[in-house]
Amino acid sequence: MKIVPIANTIFGNEKAWGLGEMHEQSPGSRGFHRYQVITVLRDGELAEFRKDLGLASLYKGINPIAIPSLWEHTVDELFFLADQLRGQSQIDVKDFLSLESFKPA
Length: 105
What we know:
Layout: E1 18-25, E2 32-42, E3 45-55, E4 65-68, H1 75-88, H2 93-96
Antiparallel strand pairs: 1-2, 1-4, 2-3
C-alpha cells in the first residue's frame, strides 16, 4: 500500500488531477462523514487535499462523485462541477422504488 502525500493548501486557479466525494468513517470513529478529495501536484507527486463536508446523513440519496480532470480544470472549476452534480444526483429512493405505498401480501 502506497502512502499518498497530503496537500495542506490548494489554490482556486491551480490545475487538478481530479475530484472525488465519498462517505468514509471519520477519524476517531465518530460516524460516517462525506469527504471531498482533490488531487493536485506537489513536488512532482500527486497529493490529496481532503475537505470534511459533514455528516453523511446530510447527504442521503446523493451518490459518490468522481470527476477526472487530467490537468484540464482548475480547483475552482471542479468545486463548481461537484456542486452541480451533487444537486442533480439527489434522489428519494423510497419514492423512486414506489415503496411508500408498498403493502406486503
